[in-house]
Amino acid sequence: PTGTIGFMMDCDTTGIEPDMALVKYKRLVGGGVLKIVNSTVGEALSRLGYDAHDVQAILDWIDEKETIEGAPRLKEEHLAVFDCAFRPRNGTRYIHHAGHIRMMAAVQPFISGAISKTVNLPNEATVEDVENTYTESWKLGLKAVALYRDGCKQSQPLSSSAGKRPEEPAAAAADTGTPAKLRRRRLPKRRHGFTQEARVGGHKVFLRTGEYEDGTLGEIFIDMHKEGAAFRSMMNCFAIAVSMGMQYGVPLEDLVDQFCFTRFEPHGRVEGHENIKVATSVIDYVFRVLGLEYLNRTDLAHVITEAPAGELIRHAHATELPVGREHRSAAHSAAESRMPEGARMRMVEGAGDTGAMFAAEHNKRLLGDAPACDSCGHITVRNGTCYRCLNCGSSMGCS
Asked: Is this prediction's pTM over 0.90?
């Protein structure tokens, strides 16, 4: 069974797929993380001849350290039995991608079709590793092979750690025993930004931003003036809290990852934005826009236009304000440095790429009547008579 069905059937591994990790974390669609511990380790240890006391000691070690490496009373020759697809959080051992290919090659002669299995590669895998994987698969007679590099997607649903590890505190703070005081970076009195009007589930939303001199985001305003005093006040307080966090150094990337895909009313179809067509909440819509505009997070958009980054357009309009030539040049330079090379070429030449325009129009036709994905909220695309999500790979009815 596949991953999601495997969880429903209480499977630890899926077919000939090795377990991703003895301890893994699954990110939930509505927010939060589910910790999953392999439940067959105890049975395997018993089959290897360990008594109940030793088995419990090893299981306690796995639960605490999230790896079996270094467990008490575990024999060195038995470590390979518990190797998994990904390197554990506090360990070093994992199954090399060549092992995945050889396992598939052993099974392929007994199957008429291709094998539904993913070859997992570590995050540091190189282009040569990918090339060798495909070449070796062809030599061994595999009919199909799918590769996945750990951490290559922004929204990876399953991983061997709950998230980023906290950074070590500053040495000075450790000496005194008190945390270092954060300093607020205040915005200039006159600043650039943009205003985006849209409707989320039929409710009008105005998103306004304020930027520093270098073009980075420093504050946001969320206006929904027809939703009542209580809801409007809560949105204003939330925008102030997010703005204060960014001014004290909270990365926008972390805020986008934290608040995207939150689900509550109002939600649904988005009208008024050319790239975002559906949102699971107003907060999801706001941070999709911020991620797209300031981080070039095209994975959060549903329709990719010819120039997905909005910074260049915003700063081009912002130069009409009565500011100094130096500020205008800095804003343009900062915006252009964050733009993809192709977008900068199109800006200079003033002409669009015919192929990109055709692809954008094709995407619009595919997304015209497509529903949102049940798993991650992205707009799906047609896959035969059903729909498939290009972000998480989920299929709504067809294989």
From this structure: no
